Amino acid sequence: MELDERKIKILNSIIQTYLITGEPVGSRTISKYTDLNLSSATIRNEMSDLEDLGYIIQPHTSAGRIPSDKGYRFYVDNLMKEKIAEVDEMKDILIEKADKLDHLLKHVAKLLATNTNYATMISAPQYKRNKLKFIQLSRVEDNQLLVVVMLDGNMIKNRLIEVDERVSEDEVAKLNILINTFLQGLNLQEINMELIQRMKVQAEGYGQIIGHIIDAIAVVIQEEDDLEIYTSGTTNLLKYPELGDREKASELLYTMEEKKALTELIVDQQDSDEENKNPIQIYIGSESPVSTMKDCSIVTATYELEEGVQGTIGIIGPKRMDYKKVVGNLQTMMNQLDDIFKKK
After folding, report:
1. Same domain, yes or no, for 235 and 337?
2. Residue 78 CA to chain centroid, in angstroms?
3. Measured at the alpha carbon of residue 336, what is the angle toward residues 84 and 275, in degrees to the nearest 5?
4. pTM for the whole thing?
5. Which residue has the higher pLDDT, 324 or 273?
6. Looking at the structure, do residues 63 and 99 belong to the same domain, yes or no?
7. Domain total of the chain
8. Which residues contact 231 (CB under 8 A, 6 or more apart)?
9. Domain ranges, residue 304
10. Cα–Cα dist 42/320, whole Å
11. What integer pLDDT is reported at residue 129 of this predicted model?
12. 280: how many CB neighbours lie within 10 A of its CB?
């Protein structure tokens, strides 16, 4: 059953009122503050339908209604369809004066926390979908080879591999030519079994070594460097009663400080970017990949320094957060970071 215009207006009124008050919303309140010109009885009937459809819930028998996760999702999805207005609150943050990236990212996190009154995080940029720029094999001992891999962005990683047979300097030189001919310019997803088999045929007896080299390349590409995450405004979460009881507050503060779960959130955001091509993601309640944040909403955005070099900005607050302001702040900040760092 699709929601008609009247139900949508009532649902939006319930959500917007609850965002402000944090209290269950009754039909009488809706009748006072909407332009529907409906009686309380009619509004109660519509609210009953919305409850049956799962958009709102009644926390207590005699209380009004509050939005469910499904209701928040409907509100957010419709919000995201609208053109996000320019956010006047975002003033010049004097980025040009920041001489270090970590200083800038800390400043961004603090500014967003101040502007939104929620908790914020921002991750340092990482290289994604790295392409192989160059591979260099060097003989260390008779049965050891050093595999040095240069990726886009001139990131260099290396790995030592054991081989079963002795490999001469001439044979290492030939293997260098072979692997660079086949693999240069590819990313890991493009190195398939057919390509590996053709390489092994060309290697003339060194197919096993080729297998070891491919395994080493896969490992160094997939290795996760320590992800630096900057946070700010964590104590802002304690201002909201629904997040303020001792157990929830303790879990949230630990999550923000320990940061391991935030890394999982960032990975989830990046995976969503690849699937949906949407730079902004909104997780409401149980949709959150972070178990300690099931009572929160999390809005994340991806900023890009240059092609393949990306980081994540996130804002964490109660489910009744001011989504429009949060999305506007993130959109503006993301655009500013893109403009500053992206290669011209």
Report:
1. yes
2. 21
3. 65
4. 0.56
5. 324
6. no
7. 3
8. 109, 119, 120, 121, 256, 257, 259, 262
9. 87-124+227-341
10. 25
11. 56
12. 19
CATH number at residue 231: 3.30.450.40
End-to-end CA distance of the chain: 49
Q: Tokens standing for 102?
A: 């970590």
Residue predicted with more confidence, 87 or 313 = 313
Binned at pLDDT 50, 70 and 90, residue 93 comes out as very low
Overall size of the chain counted in residues: 344
Judge if 315 and 236 occupy the same domain: yes
Amino acid at 199: M
Please report, for the domain that includes residue 16, its CATH number: 1.10.10.10
pLDDT band (50, 70, 90) for residue 332: confident
Element (H, E) at 212: helix 207-222
What is the token pair recorded at 179? 């692997």
Q: Check pLDDT > 60 for residue 97.
A: no
Here the CATH number for the domain that contains residue 211 is 3.30.390.60
Which of residues 52, 80, 108 is at a domain's end?
Answer: 80
